[in-house]
Specification:
Archaeosine Trna-guanine Transglycosylase, Chain: A, domain 4; Pseudouridine synthase; 5-stranded mixed beta sheet; 6 helices; 18 strands; 19% helix; alpha+beta; 9-stranded mixed beta sheet; 3 domains; 302 residues
Length: 302
């Protein structure tokens, strides 16, 4: 079973928890995800299954869109509502104009300090493992890009937002830094990912829905059509002869597609067999092979 499913991740589960549940539902060990969500967060979590787990390398820099709520008045050690309160809580009443002015300071390319409770590694050890042991977490700032950051509303001590960001951006850190700049502390109250790359909530399914559909034997209906994956790469349908060569890692001539550097190669309408890179002219070499040459049965001699 090779494909991509979009799960609407519930709060309280890690991304790995979701992967394990889907492995159990599908009865398939080869399942991975395209972009971690914190346990607090909900929303779009694309899962890759079977041979298509190899596509994960193309999604490492995918743009993401989030909606959420920032609560002002106190910070937490995790920078979200799952953490322990840091310092005394303050009574805060923020205004929409005030928070919009503050949010404008975070637009574009900024230097951001990742949260101490994060997967960033320090000498090979994830930062969250050190933070849990109350050991020093010496992280360095990284450059991230906030492409859009819109404050949708503000009332009392909370502000709702929508943000479109480049890969590697921590919304928890933005909430924490906004609270620090206001001098009252803040943390991420809730977060929902609505878009990752070409995937959005309209394509997402709950774990309960996956389980029900799988038991009914119609799980294939929920997989994203492979021609919709990686839309930046044009689709090419290979001839039977060319497909056989590609399955064995051989370079082939493919139909001319302007000057596309990389293409998705299909055998028929649905079987994605490779991502290929142009060598010269119409000659392409498979960068990754996703489907090997099918094994043919040989009639036994009597």
């Amino acid at each position: 079973m090779n494909g991509i499913l979009i799960v609407d991740k519930p709060a309280g589960l890690t991304s790995h928890d979701v992967v394990n549940r889907v492995r159990h539902i599908l009865q398939q060990p080869s399942v991975g995800h395209l972009g971690t969500l914190d346990p607090l967060a909900t929303g779009v979590l694309p899962l890759v299954t079977g041979n298509l787990t190899r596509l994960a390398q193309f999604y490492g820099s995918s743009e993401k869109t989030y909606e959420g709520v920032i609560r002002f008045g106190f910070a937490t050690d995790t920078y979200d509502s799952d953490g322990e309160i840091q310092g005394p809580a303050q009574t805060v009443n923020v205004s929409l104009e005030q928070i919009r002015v503050l949010a404008s300071r975070f637009a574009g390319l900024i230097e951001q300090m990742p949260p101490p409770f994060s997967a960033k590694k320090i000498k090979g050890v994830p930062a969250y493992k050190l933070a849990r042991k109350h050991q020093e977490v010496a992280l360095k700032t990284v450059q991230v890009e906030i492409k859009e950051f819109e404050i949708l509303g503000a009332q009392a001590d909370q502000a709702s937002f929508r943000a479109r960001v480049a890969s590697g951006t921590y919304m928890r850190s933005i909430a924490h830094d906004m609270g620090r700049q206001l001098g009252c502390g803040a943390h991420l109250q809730s977060l929902r990912r609505t878009v990752l790359g070409e995937f959005d909530l309209n394509q997402a399914h709950t774990l309960e829905e996956l389980d029900s559909v799988c038991k009914a034997g119609t799980i294939d209906e929920l997989f994203i059509h492979p021609r919709r994956l990686l839309p930046e790469f044009p689709c090419v349908t290979a001839s039977e002869e060319a497909a056989a060569l590609i399955r064995n890692g051989r370079a082939v001539n493919l139909p001319e597609l302007s000057q596309a550097r990389q293409v998705k190669v299909f055998a028929g309408q649905r079987e994605l067999i490779a991502i290929a890179t142009r060598i010269a002219g119409t000659l392409f070499h498979p960068r990754i092979v996703l489907a090997a040459e099918p094994v043919r049965e040989v009639a036994s001699k009597k």
